[in-house]
Amino acid sequence: MLKKINRQEALSKYPVFPLRSYDKASDEETITYPKIYKSYVLTLASKSFRGHCKNLGKEISGLAKQLDCKSLIFLGDTTLSWLYQHNDYNPAQRARQYFTDNKIGIHFNGALQPGNDELPIFIVHLSWMIRCNAALPYIYFIDEGQNILGNICKYGNLHIDTLNPVTDKAFTKAVRQLNFQYLNSNHCFNQFSKTSIITGRSLL
To answer: How confident is the model at residue 186 (pLDDT cuts 50, 70, 90)?
Structure first.
């Protein structure tokens, strides 16, 4: 089950969420990002993106348990809705159907809080949405205590910011119990192709 949280309510309750908006006057983006302690990029050794999504769901769920997170909350960094972009690519269509089946309306742009049992499959469909739909916001997640901030990139890598030294210590300990591998943050790449082109990715 996915719990829906009104966008303003989510931002009021969890003010560390990053935000991004476009300023027409200056023709520039305005970005708000919390003060972080350390940043990491994690990946998994996978043969295909399909299998990678499933493994990523399991490992993120495992990470949440290792960190004693009761749940994770997900929110886009702009006001665009979760279902803003249409994409005819089959995995993107299945992902969209998953959100529709969970009663996420076409205009909903608030936060989503999947239950612990739902988190692995939620990550699978979220990963496909992010990979295929270039027009969507960056989707970030935090724990309820606002100690850790993360997002999945289009390549399927997990970008994590720890927000304090206590959580950072717990995070690095937790990673040792899981199957994640550290990546250099400057070398995030598409491990499922010889080129940077992502099948099914569209701006429209």
So the answer is: low
End-to-end CA distance of the chain: 29
What residues does 162 pair with on adjacent strands?
38, 148
CA 3, 5, 11 angle in degrees (round to 5)?
A: 140
Distance between CA atoms of residues 186 and 5, nearest Å: 34
Its pTM stands at 0.95
Please give the angle made by the CA atoms of 169, 170 and 173, to the nearest 5 degrees: 90
Which residues is 73 bridged to in the sheet?
A: 142
49-66 and 119-132 helices, crossing angle to 10°? 130
Strands (E), 24-138: 28-32, 38-43, 72-76, 111-114
Beta strands in 2-37, from DSSP E residues, in sequence order: 2-5, 19-23, 28-32
Q: Is the pLDDT of residue 80 over 70?
A: yes
